[in-house]
Design brief:
The complex is a heterodimer. Helix content of chain A is about 30%, strand content about 30%. Chain A is α+β, with helices and mostly antiparallel strands. The longest helix of chain A is centred in the first third of the chain and has 22 residues. The radius of gyration of chain A is 15 Å and the shape is globular. The model of chain A has no long low-confidence stretch (mean pLDDT about 95). Chain B has a single domain, classed as 2-Layer Sandwich (Transcription Regulator spoIIAA). Chain B has three helices and four strands. In chain B, helix 1 links the parallel strand 2 and strand 3. The radius of gyration of chain B is 12 Å and the shape is globular. The model of chain B has no long low-confidence stretch (mean pLDDT about 95). Classes of the chains: A alpha+beta, B alpha/beta. At the A-B interface, helix 1, helix 2 and helix 4 of A face helix 2 and helix 3 of B.
Chain lengths: ~140, ~100
């Protein structure tokens, strides 16, 4: 079960959100997670994929890569886009911060990722893309 | 994604069914706003989320948008029936402070 890995590439369109979070939600099932843990993971994936679609590719939908792997009872999920990037990551991580307030965006995406996962790291370069690295412990006594 | 509603005096209950995410939010917004416009005499609007199977921050944005719109018309809005998972997102956003749970 350990060191298992999956990679998923999808077009950055909202119709793929359900598919993306469901695939990752199914992948983690081999760790026998609780319903709440699966729900947290699916919500965090949905937030990251939404960011890629809405902010990463505001003009033309590109490609989103979703990697997940299991290591010592932890699920690691990395979500990459090759979009416009984030100019100020610190600002983007603030609760309720949004660049698209006129679209009724809550600005809670990164806050939900941070609250629902154990760790979230964001790396971004303008006009190159954004990479989100998240992890969550599922089995506390795994070796 | 589907919306139904029930009117009881000045109370309007809007039942939301399905998933509230980036993919469905535009349709949900249009359907809910049509119900709100058709029932503009209501004093209280209750959003019943017991039929919502998934909701992320896009759903929060949608609900805050409806709250702001209703507040301008002096209409109070409430939330009921959220699942444990949906409630976790709602509470993180502090939504119950402006749209009380009933």
């Amino acid at each position: 079960m350990n060191n298992n890995k999956m990679v998923l590439k999808i077009s950055a369109i909202s119709e793929n959100e359900h598919f993306a979070r469901t695939v990752v939600g199914c992948f983690v099932l081999r760790l026998n997670p609780s319903v709440a843990q699966v729900s947290d993971i699916k919500t965090a994936v949905s937030e990251a994929v939404t960011n890629c679609i809405v902010h990463g590719y505001p003009n033309n939908p590109g490609e989103i890569t979703i990697e997940a792997y299991i290591e010592k009872g932890n699920i690691h999920i990395n979500i990459f886009d090759n979009g416009v990037g984030i100019s100020n990551i610190e600002e983007a991580l603030q609760p309720f911060y949004t660049t698209k307030g006129d679209e009724e965006r809550s600005g809670m995406g990164f806050t939900i990722m941070q609250s629902f996962m154990d760790s979230v790291e964001v790396k971004s370069k303008l006009n190159e893309g954004t990479k989100i690295y998240m992890s969550k412990k599922i089995i506390s006594d795994a070796v | 994604m589907n919306i139904k509603y029930q009117k009881n005096g000045s109370d309007l209950t809007v039942f939301v069914y399905g998933e509230l995410d980036e993919c469905s939010s535009s349709k949900a917004k249009n359907l809910i706003d049509r119900v709100l416009n058709d029932n503009y005499t209501s004093s209280n609007v209750i959003f019943d989320l017991s039929g919502v199977s998934f909701m992320d921050s896009t759903g929060i944005g949608l609900l805050i948008g409806r709250y702001k719109k209703l507040k301008q018309q002096n209409v109070a809005s409430y939330i009921s029936g959220a699942s444990v998972a949906t409630e976790k997102v709602i509470e993180l956003a502090g939504l119950y402070s402006i749209m009380p749970k009933i």
